[in-house]
Predict the structure.
Amino acid sequence: MKATRLEALEGGAAAQPASVVVPRHVAIIMDGNGRWAQRRHLPRVAGHRAGAEAVRRAMQAAADAGVEVLTVYAFSSENWRRSEEEVSDLKGLMRYYVEKELDTLQKERVRLQLIGEPGAFGNELYDRLVHSVERTKDNDRLTLVVALNYGSQGEITAAARELARRAASGEIAPEDVTERSIEALLQTADLPPLDLLIRTSGEVRLSNFLLWQAAYAELVFTDVLWPDFDESAFNAALAEYARRQRRFGGR
Ligand code: FPP
């Protein structure tokens, strides 16, 4: 349990004694880039560009608050249904940011990790992503997990298929298929349990994101559009999480 800056935000250590709990692992469904752009009569890509800036702010806010892992849903396995132009814009943005942000990740001691199937974005982008993962692997202030071409049902299916393969080959018995053995094959196996899942833009769905991992997570939905999501919105979600922990904790 950590008492941090959140105490000051909520009225100071005296008002909120050491009971303020900071989630170890926060995930965000970043939604609303398109609507943000539309309201400004801008092309959708402008919303995604502003959304990428919001990722940087969230990363900073998470690190400052003492969160260990921030997982963001940057591209779902369903996002391929968007227009060719938009997919290409998103890929271009990722290429730009993975290059441009490497120095920031190093400076801020942020370790980059990937989940999903980013190989589908082509060798050039994939190699750059893997290079950044490799370069930042010893950073210890925050782990930023970017979900790229990720889908939770696909992830769970792959784990089930691997266990079926092991059972068929006699490596394991059917009884060895347990919650723990499934969990160990998910792409998040090395991360702390998900504590808090945030979705922006007023939509109240999980959209195939971290379905297994969210089993015990607190869910926070906010009307803020992703490009407008700033440090105070992030801290408001952390404060909501801390309030819920206090209400039901009793531990
Ligand atoms: C949802 O908004 C957002 C996405 C599908 C893409 C998220 C991508 C970024 C924030 C930028 C790149 C990320 C990184 C890590 C550099 P939407 O387009 O569905 O919005 P709408 O529902 O208002 O149309």
Summary: The longest strand covers residues 142-150. Residues 26 and 196 are 5 Å apart (CA to CA). The beta strands are 25-29, 69-76, 110-116, 142-150, 196-199, 218-221. Residues 1-18 have pLDDT under 50 and may be disordered.
